[in-house]
Amino acid sequence: MSPHRLDVLDLTAHRCRELLEAGDVSATELARLYLHRIAAVDGAVQAYLLVDEEGALAKAAAVDAKPRGERLPWEGVPIGLKDIFCVKGMETTCGSRILKGYHPPYDATIIGKLRAAGLVFLGKLNMDEFAMGSSTENSAFQTTHNPWDLERVPGGSSGGSAACVAAAEAPWALGTDTGGSIRQPASLCGVVGLKPTYGAVSRYGLVAFASSLDQIGPLTRDVKDAAALLDIIAGRDPRDSTSIGLPEPVGTPSRTDLEGLRFGVIKEFIGEACEPGVREVFDSAVEMISSLGGVCEEVSLPSVEQGIAAYYLIAPSEASSNLARFDGVRYGHRASGADDLYEMYTRTRSEGFGPEVKRRIMIGTYALSAGYYDAYYAQAQRTRTLIIRDFAGAFDRFDFLVSPTSPSVAFKIGEKTADPLAMYLSDLCTIPVNLAGLPGISVPAGFSQGLPVGLQIIGPHFSEKGMLGAAHALEQRLALPLVPPLAEVAR
Amino acid sequence: MTLIKEGWEAVIGLEIHVQLNTRTKMFCGCELSFGDPPNTHVCPVCLGHPGVLPVTNEKAVEYATRIALALGCRIADYTIFHRKNYFYPDLPKAYQISQYDLPLGIGGHLDVELEDGSNLRVGITRVHMEEDAGKLVHSGGASGRIDGADYSLVDFNRGGTPLVEIVSEPDISTPDQARAFLTQLRSLVQTLEVSDVNMEEGSLRCDANVSVRRPGAALGTKTELKNMNSFRFLHHGLESEIERQLEALESGERIVQETIHFDPASGLVSSLRSKEEAHDYRYFPEPDLTPIELDDAYVERVRQSLPELPAARKERLVAEYSLPPKDAGSLSANKPLGDYFEALAAATGDARMSANWVMGDLSGYLNAAGLEVTASAVSAEALAELLRLVSEGTLSGKMAKEVLEAMIDTGKPAGDIVAEKGMGQISDAGELDAIVARIVAANPGPAEEFRQGRDRVLGFFVGQVMKETKGQANPQLVNELLRKHLGGAG
Question: Partner of A426 for a Cys bridge, out of A134, A323, A409, B269, CB 3.0 to 4.6 A?
Fold first, then answer.
């Protein structure tokens, strides 16, 4: 097959791998194919903050120079990276002006793993500033557009990663998920998004938002790719004391039925907040689970209704501390002309951070302050314990829990920017999963108003293998046509 | 309580920071250093780059456990790190990883021997682990502080060095007691071999909380006294601050709770009130680190590995070598010095003489040269050789002091120096006998006086013999020979 007849819209990462292994395409041809695609559509989508054409082609050439038999399985397959991962020498901004021009002196652990696997880095993907947001509208540099409807948001914070994969600007991408930042944009863009168990993947080199919640995970065009990318990045890392790794590699999911599995439908996530169109898609997905042999039953987890409240104390508290290092002293933006240290701090941070980041730093600083700690931070942590217990109780009865990933389909750009609370509700169904440290996956389950709707499957800690198997069975049966109309425009 | 002044007593608690001498920093792999060029022992972790994570230094936990156990603390079976949040350019993450309500060690004590020989038991509230900050160098401006400086430079070499903070109960009531406590705490930590405990280099630092009150009254308002980087400054700073508080209270003013800066140059204390001191540290559990659970077996292993502590050594030196308690105390306060003494005593078989030499001439030389005994030019073996020459009668005590000086200067063994300088005492009875006979014969007058009972004349003859032998004659032998040749009453 000659490269010009290859269509990126047909490609998944494992298809890229097959073509490379068969010698049907060279790594350079593959990289060029994606670079052309980026050139063609990214003006409209605006998923990339940085395209490393030179680096990608150099890496691809190095792969091509190696005899095929000596290559590693994924060597030469391109990938897109959320701009939250430190890549040595490659500008890493976290979507913030305060890190504009920052070139990390080191690689994140997962970047080292991707390099070791021989992947080709296409570039850095847009995100809400410091991963705070659900739409990429909080990016200091650009808003990414949903490839299914360019007037709508791709979700966030890993909106650049989700849109990039949906628009086939990379076969797969990595994102991070603190309260839904992989799963919600995956749902809104019609791709697969996996948040692993807390501790499965090293956080070293991931610019921290909320340390006790952040996890790195794949955004892919199918479940098989999500499993493969998870196996590449997972593992205990001596540089991350909170990392554990996975009990075993998840391997390639092949399950096509759900016989013998019990699914709990979380009652609190399908109430009023859920759009009717989303509810319809979800209900038919539940029917399909049953038709595949799974047993579905409604389950109540009362504490998850406090999830958003607890999250918006814990995450900002940790963030207020994590983001304090951006002080203009050692790297990143520094305000000029300040007369003394405190003016330098104040002006640097006032100029460098956007409104949502400032809002959360203020909330977190307040929640940790003397006299408020017990009422806010400590109370939120107690709530978190209740949520963990509710999930644990549910997993005594069910193998997996299911819900819509997002209560709504992709919303219009600008629709929720004036109302932070409405924006926060986007993560209603995903936040409790982070609070409990559980793995969750969003798989495309259908469409509402012509826009993708995702189904969230939640499993017990370290149940990724089984969870991916279940997701695979559902994906195979659904066999959705996941090509955004953008493709027609670009061709 | 000892009154600080008629009708007043002071209440003092100390906070001591001990820099551990582990190979690497508390939360990264950078090597510890002192005096190296700025920012040469740094990495993304200790520079607080985005995305980095801390990893606890296991050795530092062990060292901290040693200190806590030596102070009689209970080791917590569950201990966690907290973040202490504040902005300052020497603190790269803008938070210090420290411990808060679940510290490593709780509830110990140190028995302090005071000048008058009495014992003061000072409670230890807690022993906890944390990381050190970097160092700032301010250029320009009068205050030597960051406010008003033209510019400031940061050296992160020290940033991330493991620290142990020891907090005492307010059981101390005079500057003398405070100094005694710190001195004895220093020798305890030194004995554990977990820190250089050098105040000038900052590996031992001390802050004090001070208040004064009428005896029996409720505690007064305390101030925190900082920057006392020597034993002398600690004493001086406390005196000045207590004086300041007394004057204020006696003139009807109130004490304000604040941080006080001791200025060694002027010997005065001044308020450190500035924006940077108005802190709410917003402590919360460090989410990047997992809790530390030290099990009984671990704690027991560390306990077993503790060396003999100064108090126990003192008792043993008294019992084993019959040393006076004061001497035993001095030798136990400095572990290397105690080790030196014991090696010397074993080699010479004479503990008293060994103790006298170690605390006398050897310490005199070390103090003058500013050396630790471990850096002494004269080893215990070499000194033992010198003392052997003394006890054999080859050298007089006075000559031995000269030889020691030469040993220090040249590094040569005592025997070589004695031979080179021809300093061996004349103990050859035959050689001396001839000299004595000649001198007695040459002085018939004094010889006659001696025979008639004027014993003091013997001194004249000894002096003559010594003059003749350039002082190298064995005095005991000279005495015997003179009496033989003079005969008579004597």
Answer: A134
Q: Where would I find the beta strands (DSSP E) of A338-490?
A: 400-404, 440-448, 451-458
- List, in order, residues 6 or more apart from B247 with CB less than 8 Å away: none
CA distance B2 to A442: 72
Q: Is A157 part of the annotated catalytic residue set? A: yes
CA B425 to chain centre: 39
Closest to A420 (Cα-Cα) out of A370, A357, A469: A357
The least confident of A252-261, A411-420, B419-428 is B419-428
Residue A324 DSSP one-character state: G
Spatial distance between the Cα atoms of B223 and B208, rounded to a whole number of angstroms: 8
Final residue of a domain: which of B404, B421, B438?
B421
Active site residue A181: yes
Residues 6+ apart with CB under 8 A from A25: A1, A3, A6, A16, A19, A33
Do B287 and A86 count as a contact with CB atoms less than 8 A apart? no
Which residue among the candidates A135, A139, A181, A320 is catalytic per the annotation? A181
Q: CA-CA distance, B119 to A413, in Å (whole number)?
A: 76
Give the tens place of pLDDT for each residue, A155-196.
999 999 999 999 999 999 999 999 999 999 999 999 999 999
Distance from CA of A314 to the nearest CA of B (A): 11
Same domain, B337 and B462: no
Q: With residue A160 as reference, give the H or E element that holds it.
A: helix A159-166
Cα separations in angstroms, B130 against A243, B81, B107, B127? 22, 8, 18, 10
Question: DSSP of B32-65, one letter per residue?
Answer: P-SSPPTTSS--TTTTT-TT------HHHHHHHH
Residue B489 is predicted with a pLDDT of: 46
Between the two ends of chain B, the Cα-to-Cα distance in Å is 62
pLDDT in tens, A451-461: 999 999 999 99
d(CA B49, CA A205): 9
Cβ contacts of B149 within 8 Å, gap of 6 or more: B138, B139, B140, B141, B143
Residues of A with CB under 8 A from a CB of B: 85-86, 92, 94, 99, 102, 104-106, 108, 203-208, 210-212, 238-242, 317-318, 320-321, 324-327, 329-331, 340-342, 345, 365, 368-370, 373, 377
* The domain boundary residue, chosen from B421, B439, B455: B421
pTM of the predicted model as reported, rounded to 2 decimal places: 0.89
> Cα-flanking dihedrals φ and ψ of residue B358, to 5°?
-65, -45
Question: What is the domain extent for residue B448?
Answer: 429-486
Is B289's Cβ below 8 Å from some Cβ in A? Answer: yes
Share of chain A above pLDDT 70, in %: 98
Domain ranges across chain A:
10-307+380-490
**In the CATH hierarchy, which top-level class contains the domain A10-307+380-490?**
alpha beta
